[in-house]
Amino acid sequence: MIEYRNGYKMPKIGLGTFRMTDAEQTYDIILKAIETGYRHFDTAQMYGNEEVVGKAIKDSGIKRKDVFITTKLQGHHSPLITRELILESMKKLQVEYLDQLLIHWPNHDNEINVQTWKVFEELYNEGLVKVIGVSNFTRYQLEMLIKDISIPPMSNQVEMHPALSQEPLRAYCEDKGIKITSYGPLMRGLILEEPYYSGLNEIAIKHNSTVGAIAIAWGLSQGVMMIPKTSTDKRLAENLSAKDIKLSNDEITKINAMNTGRRLYSDPSNNIYGKYIK
Fold first, then answer.
1. Does residue 140 belong to any structural domain of this protein?
2. Site described as Lowers pKa of active site Tyr, positions (predicted)?
Protein backbone atom coordinates (compact mmCIF):
# COMPACT_ATOMS: atom_id res chain seq x y z
CA MET A 1 0.00 0.00 0.00
CA ILE A 2 1.03 3.60 -0.58
CA GLU A 3 -0.11 6.25 1.90
CA TYR A 4 -1.27 9.72 0.91
CA ARG A 5 -0.42 12.67 3.09
CA ASN A 6 -3.89 12.57 4.67
CA GLY A 7 -3.29 8.99 5.82
CA TYR A 8 -5.54 7.31 3.25
CA LYS A 9 -3.99 4.25 1.62
CA MET A 10 -4.05 2.93 -1.94
CA PRO A 11 -2.91 -0.44 -3.38
CA LYS A 12 0.35 -0.12 -5.30
CA ILE A 13 -1.02 -1.94 -8.35
CA GLY A 14 -4.39 -1.39 -9.94
CA LEU A 15 -6.19 -2.33 -13.12
CA GLY A 16 -6.57 0.41 -15.71
CA THR A 17 -9.74 0.27 -17.81
CA PHE A 18 -8.90 2.72 -20.60
CA ARG A 19 -10.47 1.58 -23.90
CA MET A 20 -12.39 -1.22 -22.22
CA THR A 21 -15.56 -0.54 -24.17
CA ASP A 22 -17.02 -4.04 -24.48
CA ALA A 23 -19.37 -4.29 -21.49
CA GLU A 24 -19.37 -8.07 -21.20
CA GLN A 25 -15.60 -8.36 -21.51
CA THR A 26 -15.03 -5.52 -19.03
CA TYR A 27 -17.42 -7.09 -16.52
CA ASP A 28 -15.68 -10.46 -16.78
CA ILE A 29 -12.15 -9.06 -16.48
CA ILE A 30 -13.08 -7.02 -13.38
CA LEU A 31 -14.47 -10.14 -11.70
CA LYS A 32 -11.37 -12.10 -12.67
CA ALA A 33 -9.11 -9.31 -11.43
CA ILE A 34 -10.79 -9.33 -8.02
CA GLU A 35 -10.39 -13.11 -7.90
CA THR A 36 -6.70 -12.72 -8.84
CA GLY A 37 -6.11 -10.22 -6.04
CA TYR A 38 -6.60 -6.75 -7.52
CA ARG A 39 -8.12 -4.21 -5.16
CA HIS A 40 -7.77 -0.99 -7.14
CA PHE A 41 -9.74 -0.16 -10.28
CA ASP A 42 -9.10 2.94 -12.36
CA THR A 43 -11.84 4.30 -14.59
CA ALA A 44 -13.01 7.67 -15.93
CA GLN A 45 -16.07 9.42 -17.27
CA MET A 46 -14.28 9.59 -20.62
CA TYR A 47 -13.93 5.81 -20.75
CA GLY A 48 -17.70 5.27 -20.77
CA ASN A 49 -17.47 2.17 -18.57
CA GLU A 50 -18.12 3.41 -15.03
CA GLU A 51 -21.47 1.64 -14.88
CA VAL A 52 -20.13 -1.79 -15.82
CA VAL A 53 -17.08 -1.37 -13.55
CA GLY A 54 -19.39 -0.53 -10.66
CA LYS A 55 -21.72 -3.44 -11.38
CA ALA A 56 -18.86 -5.95 -11.55
CA ILE A 57 -17.39 -4.76 -8.26
CA LYS A 58 -20.82 -4.87 -6.63
CA ASP A 59 -21.63 -8.32 -8.01
CA SER A 60 -18.27 -9.70 -6.88
CA GLY A 61 -19.43 -9.48 -3.28
CA ILE A 62 -16.24 -7.78 -2.14
CA LYS A 63 -16.68 -5.39 0.77
CA ARG A 64 -16.62 -1.72 -0.21
CA LYS A 65 -13.87 -0.94 2.29
CA ASP A 66 -11.63 -3.53 0.65
CA VAL A 67 -11.61 -2.00 -2.83
CA PHE A 68 -10.15 1.31 -4.05
CA ILE A 69 -11.99 3.06 -6.90
CA THR A 70 -10.56 5.93 -8.94
CA THR A 71 -12.49 7.94 -11.51
CA LYS A 72 -11.79 11.15 -13.41
CA LEU A 73 -13.83 14.17 -14.40
CA GLN A 74 -14.19 14.64 -18.15
CA GLY A 75 -13.64 18.21 -19.25
CA HIS A 76 -14.31 21.34 -17.18
CA HIS A 77 -17.71 22.84 -16.47
CA SER A 78 -19.56 25.27 -14.23
CA PRO A 79 -19.33 24.38 -10.52
CA LEU A 80 -22.94 23.17 -10.51
CA ILE A 81 -22.52 20.86 -13.52
CA THR A 82 -19.14 19.65 -12.22
CA ARG A 83 -20.75 18.54 -8.98
CA GLU A 84 -23.67 16.92 -10.81
CA LEU A 85 -21.34 14.96 -13.10
CA ILE A 86 -19.31 13.65 -10.16
CA LEU A 87 -22.43 12.59 -8.26
CA GLU A 88 -23.60 10.87 -11.45
CA SER A 89 -20.30 8.93 -11.57
CA MET A 90 -20.86 7.81 -7.99
CA LYS A 91 -24.34 6.61 -8.93
CA LYS A 92 -22.99 4.66 -11.91
CA LEU A 93 -20.27 3.11 -9.75
CA GLN A 94 -22.85 2.30 -7.05
CA VAL A 95 -20.79 3.89 -4.27
CA GLU A 96 -21.50 6.34 -1.47
CA TYR A 97 -17.99 7.78 -1.72
CA LEU A 98 -15.08 7.79 -4.17
CA ASP A 99 -11.67 6.69 -3.01
CA GLN A 100 -10.00 8.98 -5.52
CA LEU A 101 -11.23 11.69 -7.89
CA LEU A 102 -8.98 13.29 -10.48
CA ILE A 103 -9.17 16.14 -12.97
CA HIS A 104 -8.54 14.09 -16.08
CA TRP A 105 -6.80 16.77 -18.17
CA PRO A 106 -5.75 20.33 -17.35
CA ASN A 107 -7.40 23.29 -19.02
CA HIS A 108 -5.03 25.80 -20.59
CA ASP A 109 -6.58 28.52 -18.43
CA ASN A 110 -5.52 28.12 -14.81
CA GLU A 111 -8.60 29.98 -13.57
CA ILE A 112 -10.75 27.19 -14.98
CA ASN A 113 -8.59 24.53 -13.32
CA VAL A 114 -8.99 26.40 -10.01
CA GLN A 115 -12.76 26.63 -10.45
CA THR A 116 -12.97 22.88 -11.01
CA TRP A 117 -10.64 22.17 -8.11
CA LYS A 118 -12.73 24.14 -5.65
CA VAL A 119 -15.62 21.72 -6.30
CA PHE A 120 -13.20 18.86 -5.59
CA GLU A 121 -12.29 20.52 -2.29
CA GLU A 122 -15.95 20.83 -1.35
CA LEU A 123 -16.60 17.15 -2.04
CA TYR A 124 -13.47 16.19 -0.09
CA ASN A 125 -14.54 18.29 2.91
CA GLU A 126 -17.98 16.65 2.74
CA GLY A 127 -16.40 13.21 2.90
CA LEU A 128 -17.71 12.16 -0.51
CA VAL A 129 -14.17 11.81 -1.86
CA LYS A 130 -11.24 10.47 0.15
CA VAL A 131 -8.39 11.57 -2.14
CA ILE A 132 -8.44 14.44 -4.64
CA GLY A 133 -5.87 14.80 -7.34
CA VAL A 134 -5.10 15.56 -10.94
CA SER A 135 -4.03 13.69 -14.04
CA ASN A 136 -1.70 14.75 -16.84
CA PHE A 137 -0.52 17.91 -15.07
CA THR A 138 3.01 19.13 -15.74
CA ARG A 139 5.12 20.77 -13.05
CA TYR A 140 4.24 24.21 -14.40
CA GLN A 141 0.51 23.43 -14.40
CA LEU A 142 0.74 22.11 -10.84
CA GLU A 143 2.59 25.21 -9.66
CA MET A 144 -0.03 27.48 -11.21
CA LEU A 145 -2.86 25.51 -9.61
CA ILE A 146 -1.34 25.18 -6.15
CA LYS A 147 -0.82 28.91 -5.64
CA ASP A 148 -4.58 29.59 -5.87
CA ILE A 149 -6.17 26.72 -3.91
CA SER A 150 -6.57 25.59 -0.30
CA ILE A 151 -5.84 21.86 -0.54
CA PRO A 152 -2.94 20.91 -2.83
CA PRO A 153 -3.46 17.84 -5.04
CA MET A 154 -2.67 14.58 -3.27
CA SER A 155 -1.89 12.72 -6.48
CA ASN A 156 -0.96 13.17 -10.12
CA GLN A 157 -1.60 10.38 -12.61
CA VAL A 158 0.73 10.68 -15.59
CA GLU A 159 2.17 8.74 -18.48
CA MET A 160 5.30 7.02 -17.17
CA HIS A 161 7.32 4.11 -18.51
CA PRO A 162 10.95 3.24 -19.34
CA ALA A 163 10.95 5.62 -22.33
CA LEU A 164 9.44 8.45 -20.24
CA SER A 165 10.76 8.15 -16.71
CA GLN A 166 9.35 11.49 -15.50
CA GLU A 167 12.21 11.88 -13.02
CA PRO A 168 12.07 15.71 -12.74
CA LEU A 169 8.28 15.70 -12.28
CA ARG A 170 8.49 12.86 -9.76
CA ALA A 171 11.10 14.75 -7.74
CA TYR A 172 8.92 17.88 -7.70
CA CYS A 173 5.81 15.93 -6.67
CA GLU A 174 7.68 14.09 -3.93
CA ASP A 175 8.82 17.43 -2.52
CA LYS A 176 5.20 18.65 -2.52
CA GLY A 177 3.75 15.47 -1.02
CA ILE A 178 2.00 14.51 -4.27
CA LYS A 179 1.90 10.80 -5.06
CA ILE A 180 2.52 9.71 -8.64
CA THR A 181 0.52 7.04 -10.47
CA SER A 182 1.79 5.72 -13.79
CA TYR A 183 -0.49 4.93 -16.69
CA GLY A 184 0.75 3.26 -19.85
CA PRO A 185 3.61 1.44 -18.07
CA LEU A 186 3.71 -1.21 -20.82
CA MET A 187 4.20 1.43 -23.51
CA ARG A 188 1.39 0.15 -25.71
CA GLY A 189 3.45 -2.98 -26.28
CA LEU A 190 6.62 -1.14 -27.33
CA ILE A 191 8.53 -2.64 -24.39
CA LEU A 192 8.66 -5.75 -26.63
CA GLU A 193 10.62 -3.80 -29.23
CA GLU A 194 14.10 -2.31 -29.33
CA PRO A 195 15.79 -0.36 -27.88
CA TYR A 196 13.87 -1.43 -24.78
CA TYR A 197 13.29 -5.16 -25.06
CA SER A 198 16.84 -6.51 -24.76
CA GLY A 199 17.69 -4.61 -21.60
CA LEU A 200 14.36 -5.36 -19.93
CA ASN A 201 14.47 -9.00 -20.96
CA GLU A 202 17.96 -9.43 -19.53
CA ILE A 203 16.62 -8.27 -16.16
CA ALA A 204 13.46 -10.37 -16.57
CA ILE A 205 15.50 -13.54 -17.09
CA LYS A 206 17.39 -12.91 -13.85
CA HIS A 207 14.08 -12.65 -11.98
CA ASN A 208 12.39 -15.51 -13.86
CA SER A 209 9.77 -13.01 -14.97
CA THR A 210 8.58 -11.06 -18.03
CA VAL A 211 9.50 -7.68 -19.48
CA GLY A 212 6.01 -6.39 -18.61
CA ALA A 213 6.32 -7.35 -14.96
CA ILE A 214 9.80 -5.82 -14.83
CA ALA A 215 8.52 -2.49 -16.22
CA ILE A 216 5.83 -2.46 -13.53
CA ALA A 217 8.27 -3.48 -10.79
CA TRP A 218 10.57 -0.63 -11.90
CA GLY A 219 7.85 1.90 -11.10
CA LEU A 220 6.86 0.23 -7.84
CA SER A 221 10.48 0.23 -6.69
CA GLN A 222 10.44 4.03 -6.87
CA GLY A 223 7.23 4.50 -4.92
CA VAL A 224 5.03 4.96 -7.98
CA MET A 225 1.59 3.37 -8.18
CA MET A 226 1.07 1.39 -11.39
CA ILE A 227 -2.19 0.77 -13.26
CA PRO A 228 -1.43 -1.48 -16.24
CA LYS A 229 -4.33 -2.43 -18.51
CA THR A 230 -5.01 -5.93 -19.78
CA SER A 231 -7.99 -7.92 -20.96
CA THR A 232 -6.48 -11.40 -20.53
CA ASP A 233 -6.49 -13.61 -17.45
CA LYS A 234 -2.85 -14.60 -17.87
CA ARG A 235 -1.61 -11.03 -17.98
CA LEU A 236 -3.65 -10.12 -14.92
CA ALA A 237 -1.62 -12.53 -12.81
CA GLU A 238 1.61 -11.67 -14.61
CA ASN A 239 1.24 -7.93 -13.97
CA LEU A 240 0.25 -8.44 -10.33
CA SER A 241 3.34 -10.59 -9.76
CA ALA A 242 5.45 -7.43 -10.16
CA LYS A 243 4.76 -6.53 -6.53
CA ASP A 244 6.98 -9.42 -5.45
CA ILE A 245 9.95 -8.48 -7.66
CA LYS A 246 12.79 -6.67 -5.90
CA LEU A 247 15.00 -4.86 -8.38
CA SER A 248 18.55 -3.90 -7.48
CA ASN A 249 19.72 -0.31 -7.63
CA ASP A 250 21.82 -1.20 -10.66
CA GLU A 251 18.79 -2.63 -12.44
CA ILE A 252 16.72 0.46 -11.67
CA THR A 253 19.53 2.67 -12.97
CA LYS A 254 19.75 0.60 -16.14
CA ILE A 255 16.04 1.04 -16.83
CA ASN A 256 16.20 4.76 -16.00
CA ALA A 257 18.85 5.08 -18.68
CA MET A 258 16.30 3.97 -21.30
CA ASN A 259 14.51 7.31 -20.90
CA THR A 260 14.33 9.36 -24.09
CA GLY A 261 11.40 11.58 -23.11
CA ARG A 262 9.20 9.74 -25.56
CA ARG A 263 5.45 10.26 -25.18
CA LEU A 264 2.98 7.71 -26.49
CA TYR A 265 -0.10 9.59 -25.31
CA SER A 266 -1.19 13.23 -25.55
CA ASP A 267 1.06 16.10 -24.49
CA PRO A 268 -0.48 17.77 -21.39
CA SER A 269 0.66 21.18 -22.59
CA ASN A 270 -1.16 20.77 -25.91
CA ASN A 271 -4.01 18.45 -25.02
CA ILE A 272 -7.49 18.81 -26.51
CA TYR A 273 -9.31 17.03 -23.68
CA GLY A 274 -9.34 19.64 -20.92
CA LYS A 275 -11.87 21.88 -22.61
CA TYR A 276 -14.32 24.07 -20.75
CA ILE A 277 -17.82 22.91 -21.63
CA LYS A 278 -20.61 25.30 -20.69
1. yes
2. 72
